[in-house]
Amino acid sequence: MADVTSGITIKRLGNDEAGALIVTTAATVDDGDTLTVTLADYGISSVLGISGFIHTTTDSVIVAEAPETAVSAGVLTVTVGGSTDNKKRAFVIWGE
């Protein structure tokens, strides 16, 4: 299990009151790896939900993969779910 935060890309979608973050990882991420997002950096004070996806074929086919999450002091920690190593992941985080 490794912290892969330094290798993620985050894009914000939506307006100032509510929106979503699209978080993508490198293709080397393993199940059990973690990443963190400081929510205030993206104008989010409350997480409403998260969906996780794994690329079964690089940059092509994706399927749902449930992550584990925790929020402490405004920092969201995402633990990659599933049972596959060395795959690109994507997460959609909804918040307001």
Strand order of the largest sheet: 1-2-8-4-5
Largest sheet features: 5 strands, antiparallel
The CATH class is identified as Mainly Beta
**CA radius of gyration:** 13 Å
The assigned CATH architecture is: Sandwich
- Percent of sequence in beta strands: over 45%
Number of strands: 8
- Please, how many helices? 0
Task: State the separation between the terminal residues, measured CA to CA.
Answer: 30 Å
Number of domains: 1
Which parts are unreliable, with pLDDT below 50 for 5 consecutive residues or more?
A: none
Helix percent reads under 10%
| Structural classification | mainly beta
What's the pLDDT, averaged over the residues?
94
H and E string: EEEEEEEE
CATH topology: Immunoglobulin-like
Summary tags:
mainly beta, 96 residues, 3-stranded antiparallel beta sheet, globular, 5-stranded antiparallel beta sheet, Immunoglobulin-like
Characterise this structure.
By secondary structure, this protein is mainly β. The protein has a single domain (5-95), classed as Immunoglobulin-like (Sandwich), CATH 2.60.40. The protein is built from no helices and 8 strands. The protein has strands at 9-14, 19-24, 34-38, 47-55, 62-64, 68-72, 75-79, 89-95. A 5-stranded antiparallel beta sheet has the order 1-2-8-4-5, with no helix packed on it. Strand 4 and strand 5 form a beta hairpin. The termini are far apart. The model has no long low-confidence stretch (mean pLDDT 94).
